[in-house]
Write a structure and sequence with these properties.
This protein is mainly α. 76% of the residues lie in helices and 0% in strands.
Amino acid sequence: MAEEDPAKITAQLLELKVEHRDLDEAIARLAESIQADELSIKRLKKRKLKIKDMISSLESRLIPDLDA
């Protein structure tokens, strides 16, 4: 497996974390709305969960493999 650039992975992580935080804020604002669209909230939550999974995957790629 080719070595991955930790700087690129870190940059991706930062972007995803910002998007994750922004989605969290958008969901909170939408949930407070009187005319909250449940389908939109579900879609945003699904996207947020997908981003969280992507963040976890990238973070695990930054941890070096140790030969036992």
